[in-house]
Amino acid sequence: MASPDPHGLNQPASLQELDARLSRIERYLGLESLDRSASKSAPADSGNFVAQKTDYQEGSGLEASIGEFGLAWIGSIVFFLGVVFLITYTYSLGHRVVATIVGYLAGAGLYFAAGFWKSRASHLSRILVAGSLLLLFYTTMRLHFFSPTPLIDNSYIVLVCLLIVVAFQLYLAVRRDSQSPATVGILMGMVAALLIDRTHIELPLVATFSAVSVYLAVHRGWRRLLNASIVLAYAAHLFWLLNNPLAGHPVQAVTEHHYHLVYLFLYAAIFSLPLLLEKQLSAEDVSSVAMIFLNCIGFSVLVFLAVLTHFQKDFAAISSGVFGLLMVSSIALWIRTNRQLGPAIYACFGFMALSIAIYGYAAIPRSFLWLSLQSLLVVSIALWFRSKVLVVVNSFIYVGILIGYFVLSPSSHPVNFSFALVALASARVMNWQKERLTLRTEMLRNVYLFIAFVLIFYGLYRSVPGQYVTLSWTLTAVGYFLLSYLLKSGKYRLMAISAMLVSVLYLFLVDLASLDPRFRVAAFLFLGLMAVMISLYYTRIRKLLH
């Protein structure tokens, strides 16, 4: 077999003569040969391409993002809405089967188009997959819901179909290892649960999807999905509590409670599990703290609304239950992780619930006695957790309860002294366990001591007969001196001196004008004697120092 002749040596003679004549004409006209002109134009074309590439790279950033990703999103959304409008319009014409076929064909078309673009434009492929599943969900939903003449009368069959679409969405999310499709799947699941509009199917489905999100968060570390699911779960329950307007009912509180509190407690328990089930403990990051906050806030707000609507008479028992669940979560998290912030957040919400429960079980003013003693329990938990957050929060709660006592309650001697003793005990614990609580300031301790100082004087003033007020205050000053000696604390010495000065002022401003002469003499003598003895104590101390 003859080999090709690249140089044209074996060409017919007629062609060789024709080529020679064309070459002579080109030389006569002064034209360049075809090969040379092509070789010169190629660099020009290459230069244009490089210039265009450089210009694109200079304009990449915002322009490239909009052109490549923004337009893909916009186009997909517009196409999705167009198909939705087409389905709705076809439904309005009475062609229900055609509308359904159009919806499923559009969804399938988008899905196969996504497969075609998977290797060429992965971001467009993901968007198309999401759009296809949304179309499938919407078309399936229209088989029964939001339709005056549904194609399928049995809502449970449509619910099963919707759950199949949701399961497929979650399967694709897991296969692609992507949180965003999973979040959309959980959202579609919550919507499907609300559409069925049957309390004991709807709320268990919400709990089920909550558990699915927890499973994915634990096994794949999808914290953003979990935080979104917490919001979606409590929002779905709020929709139910508002008579489920998504199902077409007027917005109002549901008429029957259907024991929905059980589901609220179930959500809170499920969402407290991820940090307990993690195989490898991670650092206490923002997402973990946000997860605990969202769970506590959602749970507390929904329970509060439930109490307002159906359980006003049982609010004390319900608050006790909230306290129990949150404290169990707090203690379990502390034992499991040995972290400080997360257990402290659970404990803070738990103790707020305990305060409400105490208010419900004990009438005013007796409830304030227990509320003041609750502060000691908070401090004990703070010591166990080594949490200064709990100490700080407890200080605010203590001051708030104290203000509430003076505003709302008549004076009670046991309550006055209980607040004072709790303040002294809290201040003592702060000083004793300063290193364990990692406290770097004396401010909180000083606040507690000041409150104790004032309340002891106020309690004695309200509880002892008028003729013994000065004597009792003087004894209080002596007690402070003894404490300063036993505890080696200069703060108690300052409190003792302050108590002596206050007693002297009261003696001259009040007792001198109103007290019976016998008690007046006794008060002067006793106070003077105590002042001299304290002075001798300071004299001895000064000599020892020098």
Question: Could you characterize the architecture of this molecule?
Answer:
This protein is mainly alpha-helical and 546 residues long. The chain has helices at 13-29, 34-58, 62-92, 96-116, 122-141, 155-176, 179-196, 199-220, 223-241, 261-271, 274-277, 286-309, 315-337, 341-361, 366-385, 388-408, 413-432, 443-463, 469-487, 490-514, 517-545. The protein starts with 12 loop residues before the first helix and ends with a helix. The model is unreliable at 1-9 and 37-42 (pLDDT under 50).
Question: How would you briefly describe this protein structure?
Answer:
With 546 residues, this protein is mainly alpha-helical. The chain is 79% helix and 0% strand. Residues 1-9 and 37-42 have low confidence and may be disordered.
The percentage helix is over 70%
Provide mean pLDDT, rounded: 82
Structural class: mainly alpha
- Number of continuous helical runs: 21
Distance between the termini: 125 Å
Tell me the β content. under 5%
SSE sequence, one letter per element: HHHHHHHHHHHHHHHHHHHHH
Count the E strands.
0
Defining traits:
546 residues; 79% helix; 21 helices; elongated
What's the structural blueprint in terms of helices and strands?
Elements: H1 13-29, H2 34-58, H3 62-92, H4 96-116, H5 122-141, H6 155-176, H7 179-196, H8 199-220, H9 223-241, H10 261-271, H11 274-277, H12 286-309, H13 315-337, H14 341-361, H15 366-385, H16 388-408, H17 413-432, H18 443-463, H19 469-487, H20 490-514, H21 517-545
Helix pairs in contact: 3-4, 3-5, 4-5, 5-6, 6-7, 7-8, 7-9, 8-9, 8-10, 9-12, 10-12, 12-13, 12-14, 13-14, 14-15, 14-16, 15-16, 15-17, 17-18, 18-19, 19-20, 19-21, 20-21
